[in-house]
Amino acid sequence: MFAAGGCFACHRFANEGGMTGPDLTGSGGRYSAHDLLDQIINPSREINEQFVPVIVKMKNGDTLTGVVVNMNGDRVTVNTDMFDPNQRVNVNRPDVASIEPSKVSPMPPGLLNLMREDEVMDLLAYIISGGNSDHNVYKK
Ligand code: HEC
Fold it and tell me: Which residue, judged by its Cα, is nearest atom 43 of ligand 1?
Protein backbone atom coordinates (compact mmCIF):
# COMPACT_ATOMS: atom_id res chain seq x y z
CA MET A 1 0.00 0.00 0.00
CA PHE A 2 2.95 2.30 0.59
CA ALA A 3 3.81 1.96 -3.09
CA ALA A 4 0.21 1.80 -4.33
CA GLY A 5 -0.65 4.94 -2.34
CA GLY A 6 2.11 6.91 -4.05
CA CYS A 7 4.03 7.47 -0.81
CA PHE A 8 7.38 6.50 -2.34
CA ALA A 9 7.12 9.46 -4.71
CA CYS A 10 8.05 11.78 -1.83
CA HIS A 11 9.11 9.63 1.12
CA ARG A 12 12.08 7.45 1.78
CA PHE A 13 11.30 4.25 3.62
CA ALA A 14 13.86 1.54 4.40
CA ASN A 15 16.35 3.10 1.95
CA GLU A 16 14.00 3.41 -1.00
CA GLY A 17 11.95 6.25 -2.41
CA GLY A 18 11.92 10.01 -2.88
CA MET A 19 13.46 12.75 -0.78
CA THR A 20 10.98 15.61 -1.08
CA GLY A 21 9.26 14.58 2.17
CA PRO A 22 10.68 13.27 5.45
CA ASP A 23 12.15 9.77 5.70
CA LEU A 24 9.36 7.72 7.26
CA THR A 25 11.45 4.73 8.32
CA GLY A 26 11.46 5.81 11.96
CA SER A 27 8.09 7.54 12.07
CA GLY A 28 6.35 4.45 13.46
CA GLY A 29 8.40 5.08 16.59
CA ARG A 30 7.73 8.84 16.65
CA TYR A 31 3.94 8.75 16.48
CA SER A 32 1.16 6.68 18.01
CA ALA A 33 -0.92 4.82 15.42
CA HIS A 34 -3.63 7.44 15.86
CA ASP A 35 -1.31 10.39 15.29
CA LEU A 36 0.37 8.66 12.37
CA LEU A 37 -2.99 8.22 10.68
CA ASP A 38 -3.89 11.81 11.50
CA GLN A 39 -0.66 13.03 9.85
CA ILE A 40 -1.61 11.16 6.69
CA ILE A 41 -5.24 12.28 6.62
CA ASN A 42 -4.55 15.89 7.62
CA PRO A 43 -1.09 16.79 6.32
CA SER A 44 -1.57 20.49 6.98
CA ARG A 45 -2.59 20.20 10.64
CA GLU A 46 1.03 19.91 11.77
CA ILE A 47 3.69 20.53 9.17
CA ASN A 48 7.13 19.03 9.75
CA GLU A 49 9.30 22.09 10.34
CA GLN A 50 11.99 20.94 7.92
CA PHE A 51 9.46 20.85 5.11
CA VAL A 52 7.42 23.99 5.63
CA PRO A 53 6.58 25.42 2.24
CA VAL A 54 6.93 29.13 1.63
CA ILE A 55 5.06 31.69 -0.38
CA VAL A 56 7.51 33.98 -2.16
CA LYS A 57 6.09 37.31 -3.27
CA MET A 58 8.15 39.12 -5.87
CA LYS A 59 8.33 42.89 -6.18
CA ASN A 60 6.84 42.61 -9.70
CA GLY A 61 3.69 40.96 -8.24
CA ASP A 62 4.53 37.37 -9.16
CA THR A 63 4.20 34.74 -6.44
CA LEU A 64 5.51 31.23 -6.19
CA THR A 65 4.99 28.49 -3.66
CA GLY A 66 7.41 25.73 -2.80
CA VAL A 67 10.11 24.60 -0.47
CA VAL A 68 13.38 26.51 -0.18
CA VAL A 69 16.12 24.05 -1.08
CA ASN A 70 19.05 26.42 -1.17
CA MET A 71 20.00 29.96 -0.21
CA ASN A 72 23.28 31.24 -1.46
CA GLY A 73 24.19 34.91 -1.40
CA ASP A 74 21.44 36.71 -3.28
CA ARG A 75 20.08 33.54 -4.82
CA VAL A 76 17.17 31.61 -3.33
CA THR A 77 16.31 28.27 -4.92
CA VAL A 78 12.75 27.01 -4.51
CA ASN A 79 11.44 23.57 -5.44
CA THR A 80 7.97 24.34 -6.79
CA ASP A 81 6.71 20.81 -7.53
CA MET A 82 6.97 18.21 -4.77
CA PHE A 83 6.53 15.39 -7.26
CA ASP A 84 9.59 16.58 -9.15
CA PRO A 85 12.69 17.51 -7.12
CA ASN A 86 14.27 18.94 -10.28
CA GLN A 87 11.51 21.49 -10.71
CA ARG A 88 13.46 24.42 -9.28
CA VAL A 89 13.15 28.15 -9.64
CA ASN A 90 15.96 30.56 -8.77
CA VAL A 91 14.96 33.97 -7.51
CA ASN A 92 17.12 36.96 -6.92
CA ARG A 93 16.78 38.12 -3.34
CA PRO A 94 16.70 41.87 -4.18
CA ASP A 95 13.63 41.13 -6.38
CA VAL A 96 11.78 39.50 -3.48
CA ALA A 97 9.16 41.47 -1.58
CA SER A 98 8.49 38.83 1.09
CA ILE A 99 8.93 35.17 1.97
CA GLU A 100 6.32 33.76 4.32
CA PRO A 101 5.64 30.25 5.57
CA SER A 102 2.59 28.62 4.04
CA LYS A 103 -0.01 26.85 6.18
CA VAL A 104 -0.64 24.26 3.50
CA SER A 105 1.48 21.11 3.55
CA PRO A 106 3.16 20.11 0.30
CA MET A 107 1.71 16.65 0.98
CA PRO A 108 -1.63 16.30 -0.78
CA PRO A 109 -4.65 15.37 1.40
CA GLY A 110 -7.03 12.58 0.44
CA LEU A 111 -4.39 9.98 -0.40
CA LEU A 112 -6.26 7.36 1.60
CA ASN A 113 -9.63 8.06 0.00
CA LEU A 114 -9.29 5.27 -2.52
CA MET A 115 -8.15 2.67 0.03
CA ARG A 116 -10.37 0.19 1.82
CA GLU A 117 -10.21 0.10 5.62
CA ASP A 118 -8.07 -3.07 5.70
CA GLU A 119 -5.69 -1.49 3.21
CA VAL A 120 -5.29 1.57 5.44
CA MET A 121 -4.57 -0.80 8.36
CA ASP A 122 -1.95 -2.60 6.26
CA LEU A 123 -0.33 0.71 5.38
CA LEU A 124 -0.14 1.77 9.04
CA ALA A 125 1.22 -1.62 10.10
CA TYR A 126 3.89 -1.36 7.41
CA ILE A 127 5.01 2.11 8.52
CA ILE A 128 4.99 1.12 12.20
CA SER A 129 7.07 -1.99 11.41
CA GLY A 130 9.85 0.19 9.96
CA GLY A 131 10.08 -2.26 7.05
CA ASN A 132 12.90 -4.75 6.95
CA SER A 133 15.67 -2.22 7.36
CA ASP A 134 18.27 -1.81 10.06
CA HIS A 135 16.13 1.00 11.41
CA ASN A 136 13.44 -1.48 12.40
CA VAL A 137 11.88 0.03 15.52
CA TYR A 138 11.51 -3.39 17.13
CA LYS A 139 15.20 -4.22 16.84
CA LYS A 140 16.26 -1.55 19.31
C1 HEC B 1 3.76 14.97 -3.02
C2 HEC B 1 4.63 14.46 -1.99
C3 HEC B 1 4.07 13.54 -0.92
C4 HEC B 1 3.33 12.37 -1.07
C5 HEC B 1 2.83 11.74 -2.35
C6 HEC B 1 3.15 11.84 0.27
N7 HEC B 1 3.73 12.67 1.18
FE8 HEC B 1 3.72 12.40 3.21
N9 HEC B 1 4.66 14.22 3.43
C10 HEC B 1 5.16 15.00 2.41
C11 HEC B 1 5.83 16.16 2.98
C12 HEC B 1 6.50 17.27 2.19
C13 HEC B 1 5.72 16.05 4.37
C14 HEC B 1 6.26 17.02 5.43
C15 HEC B 1 5.31 18.15 5.65
C16 HEC B 1 4.21 17.80 6.63
O17 HEC B 1 4.53 17.41 7.76
O18 HEC B 1 3.03 17.94 6.27
C19 HEC B 1 4.99 14.79 4.63
C20 HEC B 1 4.69 14.29 5.91
C21 HEC B 1 4.22 13.02 6.16
C22 HEC B 1 4.11 12.43 7.48
C23 HEC B 1 4.53 13.10 8.78
C24 HEC B 1 5.98 12.75 8.99
C25 HEC B 1 6.74 13.69 9.87
O26 HEC B 1 7.86 13.32 10.28
O27 HEC B 1 6.25 14.79 10.15
C28 HEC B 1 3.63 11.15 7.32
C29 HEC B 1 3.38 10.12 8.41
C30 HEC B 1 3.41 10.97 5.90
N31 HEC B 1 3.79 12.12 5.23
C32 HEC B 1 2.94 9.80 5.32
C33 HEC B 1 2.66 9.64 3.96
C34 HEC B 1 2.04 8.44 3.40
C35 HEC B 1 1.66 7.19 4.19
C36 HEC B 1 1.90 8.69 2.06
C37 HEC B 1 1.24 7.78 1.02
C38 HEC B 1 -0.15 7.41 1.28
C39 HEC B 1 2.43 10.03 1.79
N40 HEC B 1 2.88 10.56 2.97
C41 HEC B 1 2.47 10.64 0.54
C42 HEC B 1 5.03 14.76 1.06
C43 HEC B 1 4.30 13.71 0.50
Answer: 107
Query: Integer distance in angstroms from the first to the last C-alpha of the chain?
Result: 25
Residue 61, CA distances (Å) to 55, 57, 73, 95, 102 in order: 12, 7, 22, 10, 17
Residue of minimum CA distance from atom 13 in ligand 1: 21
Please check whether residue 2 is in contact with residue 120, taking contact to mean a CB–CB distance below 8 angstroms: no
Domains and CATH numbers, the chain: 7-47+107-139 (1.10.760), 53-101 (2.30.30.100)
Q: 66-105 pLDDT, tens per residue?
A: 989 898 999 999 999 888 878 999 999 999 999 999 999 9
**Nearest of 9, 2, 1 to residue 107 by alpha carbon:** 9
